[in-house]
Structures are given as structure tokens and as C-alpha cells.
Amino acid sequence: MIPQKRSWKIRFCNIQDKPQEVTVNGQVYKDAEFAEDEKLHGTIVILKDVPADAQVKITFAADVAVYQRDYAEEAYEILEKAQITYAQKTDVYKVVKELGTEAVPVLVSMNLNPSLLGVLMEILTMGI
After folding, report:
1. Under 8 Å CB-to-CB from 93, ≥6 apart: which residues?
2. How high is the pLDDT of residue 10?
3. How many whole angstroms separate alpha carbon 53 and alpha carbon 22?
4. What gap in Å lies between CA 101 and CA 6, rounded to an integer?
5. Are 85 and 40 in contact (CB under 8 A)?
């Protein structure tokens, strides 16, 4: 048996602004709650006691603020724990800082440990 009402937490990654409007079955839903998701750099929309068969629509403004990822900082956190030489860490960090997502081909050519390369590739290609 399907419950008559449900509560929802809807996460929007990399969006810093709250939605412009939330509607349930075409009616403005004024009881929506909003929270910040620090891990995903985003916004959480919380809806409580919404009919299970309802149509929910969440609208953001056209000029919504989007989080700009700091690839160099993310790479630094990985490199800090990596078991490679300081010189290699410096070279990788410099490439990522200068090229951002365009660093992928250069990193592939650097003959890095496959596990480290995999993590760096995931960071740099996650949003592509």
C-alpha cells in the first residue's frame, strides 16, 4: 500500500540560490524549507506531507548562482595524502591549477599511479 503523503528532501548540487518557486499540483507550496548542502555545494529543498501522487515543480531563476569548483583545492586534498614524491605532487598541482579540466591529457602523460590518476580524473571530469 502506498502512503497517502510523503516528505521529500531534494538536493540540487552546485546551486547556491534558493528556488524562485515551488509548486505542488500547480499550486504555490509555501511550506517548503530550504537548507544548504555544504558537501555538494548546493541547496536542499524540503517538502513535508505532500500527497504521494502529487506533481512537484521546483523553479530556479534564470540567473541562479552556480558554485564554481576549485579543482586545484580538490586536487591538493588528494595530493596531500598521496604517497608520491614532493616534486610529483608539485607538478600535478601546478598542472591542475593552470589547466583545470583541461589538465586531463597532461595528467595521463605524467605516468602517475593508476589509483591516483583515477581519483584526479574523477575530480576533473565529474561536472563534464
Report:
1. 72, 75, 76, 79
2. 95
3. 16
4. 40
5. no
Confidence at residue 14, expressed as pLDDT on a 0 to 100 scale: 82
- Reading the block at residue 31, the C-alpha cell is 511550506
Q: Residue 97's pLDDT is what? A: 94
Give dist(CA 44, CA 111) in Å, integer: 40
Task: Supply angle C-alpha 97, 14, 25, rounded to 5.
Answer: 165
Rounded CA-CA distance 44/57 in Å is 14
- Report pLDDT for 85: 93
The residues near 74 (Cβ < 8 Å, ≥ 6 apart) are 123
User: What is the pLDDT at residue 5?
Assistant: 93
Q: Is 14 left (phi over 0), alpha (psi -120 to 50) or beta?
A: left
User: Residue 32 CB: number of other CB atoms within 10 A?
Assistant: 21
**In the 8-state DSSP scheme, what is residue 3?**
-
Residues of the chain with pLDDT under 70: 127-128
